[in-house]
Design brief:
Keywords: ATP-binding, Cell junction, Coiled coil, Cytoplasm, Cytoplasmic vesicle, Cytoskeleton, Membrane, Microtubule, Motor protein, Nucleotide-binding, Phosphoprotein. The protein has 15 helices and 15 strands. By secondary structure, the protein is an alpha/beta fold. The radius of gyration is 69 Å and the shape is elongated. The N terminus and C terminus are likely disordered. The chain binds adenosine-5'-diphosphate (ADP) and magnesium ion.
Length: 723
Amino acid sequence: MCSFVSLSPDGATDLEKHLELLVVENERLKQELKACKTSLLQEAPPPACTATDCPHSQVRVGRINRQLEESKRHAGEMQRQLEESKCQQGEVEQQLSIRLRDCEEEMARQAARPHQVKYVTEIVEVESSGSQQAVAEAQAKSAALQEQLSLQRQLLRELETQLHESQRTSTQLRAQILVYEGEMERAQGQLEAEMQNLEEEKNRVIEDAFIRAESEMKAVHENLAGVRMNLLTLQPALRTLTCDYNCLKRQVQDFPFMLEKAMTEAKQEICQVIGEVSSANQELLRKYKREMNLRKKCHNELVRLKGNIRVFCRVRPVCRGEHDSAENMVSFDPDDDALLYLSNKGKLMTFELDKVFHPQATQEGVFQEVQSLVTSCIDGFNVCIFAYGQTGSGKTYTMEGVAKDPGINQRALRLLFSEVTEKAPDWDFKITVSMVEIYNETLRNLLGDNQGEKLDIKMNPDGSGQLYVPGLTEFTVQSPEDINRVFELGHMNRATACTNLNEHSSRSHALLIITVAGVNSSTGHRTQGKLNLVDLAGSERIAKSGAEGSRLREAQCINKSLSALGDVINALRSRHSHVPFRNSRLTYLLSDSLSGDSKTLMMVQVSPLVCNMSESVCSLKFAQRVRTIELGNATRRQWENSSTTSSPTHDIMISYALCSFRRSFQQAHCFHQMKTAELMPDRACTQMHNRCIQSGFEKCLHLYRKWNLQACSRVVPFHFSKP
Ligand code: ADP
Ligand code: MG
């Protein structure tokens, strides 16, 4: 009974195990079949193939064929395995049917047995108790066997079910294999058709290519024939070219020698031209120097004729809030811009200056008259421009001006910049600026750091005889912005030193010293000019008003320095051997800018107010004194008397008229010289020359007529009424 169903250690029977193996194998075969099918589908040929794809298609067809072979082989393998598994299954079936038969026999035997046992039991029951026990045991055994039997039957049923199942699976697999085989056959058919198509396509493409190649070949042959023809015609051209090439080669070989020769000739020519140019240059330079000297001479002459010391007068307008009937006090001559009339206590006083500016004169207009002086500083002249007059007469306005309408100081620096820039290609200029204040005869550096420091004026130790101020700050200015910065610093320093700037500034002299040093880049010629722009302290006579203490000292210092200035100018004009420069700090500091061929302009400021009448008279007298110096001592004195005493004689009038005429004539002569030197256009010179002579005559005639009228009318002479 135990050998009938052998159980494996894990509880499964051999049959079960075998069945499992079969199932697994079956599954694997299914998988492989599926993979084959997929690869077949993937390898299905494309719908159409172009002529150019032909070789590639052939390769593909070969590959597909190989795969088909492989698939067939695989299918055969599978078939074989299936056959084997069928065999195995048949064997298993056979074993199972044998076992089933054994089991049935056993069962039949077992069925036959209980009667025996029952019989034995009955006997045993009857016979003995021992036998009864044996019967009981036998019964128990029989029950156990019965149980085992039912178990075996159940197992048998299960095995039968499994057998049916595997038979069914096997049938299914067979059907599937058939299906796959059908599919494979179909795919093969398709492949073959495709291959045939491709083969046809290939043949067609090859034919086409062959035809094309033939026609191309024909064309190439034709071309070749053309090229051959060309070659034949080109040969003579080539021969000519070779000839030319050889010729050129020879020329190239000769070229360095020719070049050298040409260069030598060119060098000689250039040297000759350079020599000519340099000699022309020398000539030009000589002419330029001569012209420069002539220009300077003419300028000097012009200045000399105009006078090295010129006196202008500017009458300021009546300002807002000043109710004064000023119009009757100051009057001007419409024909002569050099005359100013003051009516003082019923007397009309006449002052002749170089130029009188009306109250309406603009800052620009005033500057136009002084700009020639400013520019002469570039030519190396020393120039002084003084603003003289009582406090409130407009000195600071004329020199500094207001922010919107700057005065001479700022305009001069701007003009210098523009002139220097114009000359820049030939000249290298450097403009430096210093600002000094003279208060109570002490010098203060307005651009320095230490405002408490008092400066001294010393003789330059280099033996040049020039004066210098040790410790005086000098700023080099290069732009209008620099000027503004310098002015700001100067003002700030001036303001910090006092409590009331207006009052303080009226009692001190403010000097702006501009030095212009230049070097001519071609000649190496050097120039240095100095422009001193001085806003003088108020000229009012404070001492007479009984000032005391510090006010008195201030007044004395101002008086001293202003009279020293007058004396110095007087001495210079009169060509005295001794000029009292050292009498004041102001004149000492400016000594080199006042002496020699330096130029001075005194701008006398006059207030139009009646209340300022006496100071205005004083200022104008000072101006007159300074100006008339140039007319010569005798004449000056007489004229001085005539203008203030209002009793001119006929001789004085004649002398004055002649003097005036002489000046006009000298001016005319100057224009004539300019014409000769070709410094001005011909026509302009002639015009100016004629105008000077005409104005000289007219002035003379005008004065004579005036005198004659007065003489005839026997009115107090020389009280000119306005024409
Ligand atoms: P000073 O420096 O002689 O004491 P200011 O220059 O300070 O005098 O002038 C006094 C006043 O008169 C200032 O308010 C100034 O603006 C004005 N002033 C002077 N001259 C003119 C002018 N030409 N045009 C307009 N205002 C002027
Ligand atoms: Mg002032």
